[in-house]
Amino acid sequence: MIQSLLAVALTGVSAFAVAVYPRSVLVFLLFQGSILFAYRARIPDWLRWSLLVAALLVLMPAIGYYNGYYLEVATQVGIFVALALGLNIVVGLAGLLDLGYVAFFAVGAYSWAIVGSPHANVIFGGESFPLAGGWFYLFLLVGLGVAALTGVLLGLPVLRLHGDYLAVVTLGFGEVIRVLANNLDKPINFTNGPKGITPISRPPTPLGLPYGEYFYFLALLIVIVVVLVNRRLENSHIGRAWEAIREDELAARAMGVPLVRMKLMAFACGASFAGIMGVLFSAKQIFINPESFTFLESIGVLAMVILGGMGSIPGAILGATVVTVLNLQVLKGFSLWLNELKNAGVTVLGYSLADLPTQFEPAKYERMVFGIILVLMMIYRPQGIFPARRRQREMTQ
Amino acid sequence: MHLFEARGVTKRFGGLTALHAVDFAVDRGISSIIGPNGAGKTTLFNIFTGLYSADEGTVTFRDRSILGRRPDQITALGICRTFQNIRLFANMTAIENVLVGMNSRIALGLWDVLSHSPGFRRTETAVAARALALLERVGLQANANDVARNLPYGDRRRLELARALASEPALLLLDEPTAGMTQGEAGALMRLLRGLVADLGLAIILIEHNMRVVMEVSDWVTVLDHGERIAEGAPREVQENPRVIEAYLGTRSPGRRRA
Q1: For residues B27 and B5, is the Cβ–Cβ distance under 8 A?
Q2: Which of A38, A118, A305, B68 has the highest CB neighbour count under 10 A?
Q3: Would you call B72 an interface residue with chain A, using a CB distance cutoff of 8 Å?
Q4: Per DSSP, what are the bridge partners of residue B31?
Q5: Under an 8 A CB cutoff, do A240 and B104 touch?
Q6: Sheet of B4-13, strand order
């Protein structure tokens, strides 16, 4: 009862506070925390779900009205949640360590970017491109399919590899895709190389919705579908076969799991989520170039999966949220705050922060702080924030 | 024609001949393979289940060759096994372990799973009920939701048996199922195996070191030594065979002792 009241109050008050202080990062974090609290608190399910629906469908877009950047953060979170859930299938369920996952995201992004921009005229000649914005919806599926196919193509040569060897090959694969994107401007200009592709068409929005809100809702919709697909796969013979492969590949084969088919299916399913989000990403950004698909991005998504808890859907969601918010807001906010102190000439223990050499500039700590958090997590909670829980079956016959 | 028949199976690992022209046939009941360590018993199992390929010879099951088939295809044909050093899916629950064993009997595609088609719902309920029945058969119904790695040793062995049974095999290969069990537990397991043979018409091949178990339960015993079949027959005949006694105990004359 107390928790119910608390959950409702927290969600309402924090959302109201964001409207009042639209520039305070702390207040926005409180709002995010209230969503997490509503998810975890011991409250009736109907209340939990109405709170979550209200927060995500009503309050979040309303907050976006006061500070558009928050909606951008939320959309980014949505994109990374889908990526983390896709990688979670490959790494968390099937146990295939993939260090080049962002390649599938790139494949999806480029599949729309090329035909959704005038750039396709350079390849195919004529004046028929860019395709009208309405094609975007079809290309969500095309991006999904192309990425899944790429997943199978990656899967085929690495079927016999395990652990470290698999990781190295997938790392190489990720780099190959990025280098291809970087260099396929000659002899035929497919990707426009490092200069990237722009402007990429956006679909017409229904009801005259602003693009910020539009992409937020679209990302949310895709995330919901992805979560549903993920859950259904996990609680089926396919998910069980993946986990069996992760636990003991040899025993899984001997028990009748078709190894090749299941591994390829894991790669394809994981890749397809990244592909569809890639299409959305390219339309949202209007501009893409190979810089968005570096090795560091793959590692970032992997960190989300590990931080949240391998093989756990809530874990992947939370991990993606925490890492994205950490990168986009907390660490940046921390840097800004220290810089302000520095500029104001604040002294700590008689030492003026303004005398700090530029090498110690707070903005440069971002990666370090992130690294320390990861190391601490691995030491104190290696199973992740929300470790995978075994499904308990009702034993009534 | 036998249910399962191996002829002239030879397997070499580099210069070492692990199996040399081994013949072996099973129709029903319990057949045991015994022999000293390194005799090639587990290698034979690995060939029978498609984990190794044989260099020479033929292996047929219900008149179909199984050489060159993948392990999962062989399982689908109706041969399943357990492992000497228990290989359960450690982080999955007992019932999930058994459910994985049923994988080759589930003919559903990706779309059935994603759309939760009526076929999918029916199959999921049916396999869950059957998995529970199998757990009950081996006495683990109370542990259905326990994670395999937390089960005591004897229970893990019985869970592996239930998982192997889940694929509805006609031939079951058990690699030292009583290893590490007390005499009482081993006896109970053997009664269970006898029951399975009687109820399901199952054929079982047993690799076993516990001679009391072997002699009590087997209908037929094959003895391997250094990759060769040195004897076969009813338990009593084999027990008195001088070559078998020699392989196990060595001979009195020091000059003929094996290195």
Answers
A1: no
A2: A305
A3: yes
A4: B205, B220
A5: no
A6: B16-26, B4-13, B56-61, B64-65
Q: Which of A:284-343 have CB within 8 Å of B?
A: none
Instruction: Name every chain B residue with its beta carbon within 8 A of the beta carbon of A233.
Output: 113-114
Cross-chain residue pair B167–A254, CB shorter than 8 Å: no
Is B259's pLDDT higher than 50? no
The SS3 of residue A227 is helix
CA A234 → CA A144, A261, B110, distances in Å?
20, 16, 12
Could you tell me the two tokens for A358? 């530029």
Q: How far is CA A182 from CA A52, A106, A120, A262, in A?
A: 41, 12, 16, 32
Cross-chain residue pair B87–A391, CB shorter than 8 Å: no
Over residues B51-84, the pLDDT tens digits come to 999 999 999 999 999 999 999 999 999 999 999 9
- Residues B45, B84: contact at Cβ < 8 Å? no
CB B223 within 8 Å of CB B35: yes
Q: Please name the residues between 165 and 204 in chain B that touch chain A, using a CB distance below 8 Å.
A: 166-167
Taking the model in full, what pTM does it have?
0.91
How far is Cα A162 from Cα A90, in angstroms, rounded to an integer?
13
N-terminal to C-terminal alpha carbon distance within chain B:
40
Q: What is the ipTM of this complex?
A: 0.91
Q: What is the DSSP letter of A190?
A: S
Residue A162, both tokens: 């395990």
Beta strands in chain B (DSSP E): 4-13, 16-26, 29-34, 56-61, 64-65, 79-81, 171-175, 203-207, 220-225, 228-233
Which of A226, A230, A237, A389 to probe by mutation at the B interface, max B CB count within 10 Å? A237
Say if residue A290 is preceded by a cis peptide, omega within 30 of 0.
no
Residues 6+ apart with CB under 8 A from B259: none
B149 touching A (Cβ < 8 Å): no
What is the secondary structure of A235-276 as a DSSP string? TSHHHHHHHHHHH-HHHHHHTT--HHHHHHHHHHHHHHHHHH
CB contact under 8 A, A391 and B99: no
B110 touches chain A (CB under 8 A): yes
In angstroms, rounded to a whole number, what is the distance separating the alpha carbons of residues A117 and A197? 7
Question: What are the φ/ψ torsions at residue A197 (nearest 5 degrees)?
Answer: -115, 135
**What CA–CA distances, in Å, run from B148 to A186, A311, A334, B140, B223?**
56, 17, 45, 11, 34
pLDDT at A363: 64
Q: What is the pLDDT of residues A311-353, one digit of tens each?
A: 999 999 999 999 999 888 887 777 778 778 878 877 777 777 7
∠ CA B18-B24-B27 to the nearest 5 degrees?
A: 150
The residues pairing with B196 across neighbouring beta strands, listed in sequence order, are none
Across the range A48-71, mean pLDDT stands at 90
| Displacement of CA A339 from its chain's centroid (Å) | 29
| B120 interaction partners in chain A (CB closer than 8 Å) | 236
B92 in reach of chain A (CB within 8 A): yes
